[in-house]
Amino acid sequence: MKISVDLPCSNEYLYKRLIDAVMMDIKQNTKARPLKDQLVNFSYQKISSNGQKIEITILEQVKNQKYSFKTTANGQSFTSSYQISALNDQQCHVEFIEAAKANSLLQTINDGFMRILFGHQRKKQFIKMLEQMAADYQLLH
């Protein structure tokens, strides 16, 4: 899945919101408090809403520009990446890319089928989340 969107907020603001959400997730699931600027290679586990055990590993972090992580569950992994670039002081461009890697042909087929069924809805929800972050920025500025 790939999503590209321009938002009416600064890249610094959006990056901070993403990292704050990550820090909250880490704290809620591990009680650990890693430094915000030293998350690369930090791994933690959490239980999803359906009871599934998930491992998250932070792969890359470039302040105000990039954040990527890998999620592993049931032998399947997803790599997700946010690339954020400033358009000007009050606008940014976000590119979100998510790639799945399955351990079997059957899982690969199932993933493709699920993307067809639910991909459009996921994209809409994701864009709505980013737009809400930008709306919050507008209220603050």
Give structural notes.
With 141 residues, the protein is α+β, with helices and mostly antiparallel strands. The chain has one domain: START domain (Alpha-D-Glucose-1,6-Bisphosphate, Chain A, domain 4, 2-Layer Sandwich). Helix content is 40%, strand content 38%. It has 2 helices and 6 strands. Strands 1-6-5-4-3-2 form a 6-stranded antiparallel sheet, with helices on one face. A hairpin with a 3-residue loop joins strand 3 (53-62) and strand 4 (66-73). The two termini are 32 Å apart. The model has no long low-confidence stretch (mean pLDDT 88).
Please give the structural blueprint.
Blueprint: E1 2-7, H1 11-30, E2 43-47, E3 53-62, E4 66-73, E5 76-88, E6 91-101, H2 105-140
Antiparallel strand pairs: 1-6, 2-3, 3-4, 4-5, 5-6
